[in-house]
Write a structure and sequence with these properties.
Blueprint: H1 2-24, H2 32-38, E1 71-78, E2 96-100, E3 103-106, H3 122-131, E4 137-142, H4 150-153, H5 156-173, E5 178-182, H6 190-209, E6 216-220, H7 232-244, E7 248-253, H8 272-289
Parallel strand pairs: 1-4, 1-5, 2-4, 5-6, 6-7
Antiparallel strand pairs: 2-3
Length: about 290
């Protein structure tokens, strides 16, 4: 009898842990952690690990937004902290979607379009924007590519993918509210810093040539592990770009997210608690401009 009582309590505890994880959106509670060790989520597949964009659309749930609702539409661009480089385990609670190649899907990590297999900040940001009443629905089109310098992002197939996504969003929704840009870590060395202003200026010029005239929310970012420590020279340049160009708006300063537990072991990418702070910063920047 005692044996059965123990099993009932154990089962109740497991169910309670799942319920807590699902209700909070932070699926990091046991037994989620244990499951994550063996199962990285329904969309994770080694076939697209760092070899190209995740375009496994059959693994995601197709959905349409409600045209009568107040919808936020955003492009995301940059390197790994703008895509799926961080801790996996957040599930959206509200009407957050992702867009690619003319189609809309329920938002789920790893986000479509990225190259990494982990979690991103965007689902959490979408929930916060809806909870604060900024939007009723949010759509993200992820165009970022991990480990890439601004000299590459400013042109070529990286930029063309963003342009194609922009045109697709305009065709489907009639507008794009902004480009959420987070990058700088890969340029955190002497030559990268010296060339950053000019390279970013060229990026903006190329957007203009492509007919993209929307706000670009530029993050301040330099920190990425021991090889790329905090670099005020780089973030000062990013601040100068915000000051000099009318289309460039203030994004988060993630160099401020350095508390223990906010970054994973590489001291570069974010944990769920770090993403929570990152998302709060994004909300403040977007609300400030609106």
């Amino acid at each position: 009898m005692k044996k059965y009582g123990f099993l009932v309590l154990l089962l109740a505890g497991i169910i309670g842990s799942f319920a807590l994880g699902v209700s909070t959106g932070y699926n990091r509670h046991a037994p989620f952690r244990l499951l994550k060790k063996y199962w990285s989520g329904p969309n994770v597949d080694p076939s697209f690990h760092n070899v190209g964009r995740n375009l496994h659309l059959d693994r995601y749930t197709s959905a349409e937004t409600d045209p009568l609702k107040k919808t936020g539409v955003y492009l995301t661009y940059g390197q790994s902290n703008a895509e799926n480089g961080g801790q996996y385990g957040y599930s959206v609670r509200s009407e957050v979607y992702q867009f690619v190649l003319g189609e809309t899907f329920v938002y789920e990590d790893p986000s479509i379009g990225g190259i990494c297999q982990g979690g991103s900040v965007w689902g959490m940001l979408g929930d916060k924007l809806i909870e604060r009443g900024i939007h009723e629905q949010v759509v993200f089109a992820n165009c970022a590519w991990g480990g890439i310098r601004i000299s590459k992002l400013k042109e070529g197939h990286y930029l063309q993918y963003l342009i194609d996504q922009y045109n697709g969003l305009m065709k489907k929704f009639g507008r794009v509210d902004g480009i959420l840009f987070h990058q700088g870590e890969s340029d955190n060395f002497t030559e990268g810093v010296l060339a950053y202003y000019d390279n970013y200026s060229e990026f903006l010029e190329n957007l203009n040539k492509a007919g993209i005239h929307v706000p670009v929310y530029l993050s301040r970012a330099s920190l990425c592990g021991k090889g790329h420590p905090l670099n005020k020279n780089l973030t000062d340049i990013q601040d100068q770009l915000i000051a000099d160009f009318g289309t460039v708006k203030e994004g988060p300063n993630t160099d401020m997210i350095i508390a223990r537990g906010d970054r994973i072991k590489d001291d570069c990418h974010f944990t769920l608690s770090g993403y929570d702070k990152f998302a709060e910063m994004w909300v403040k920047c977007l609300v400030k401009e609106k």
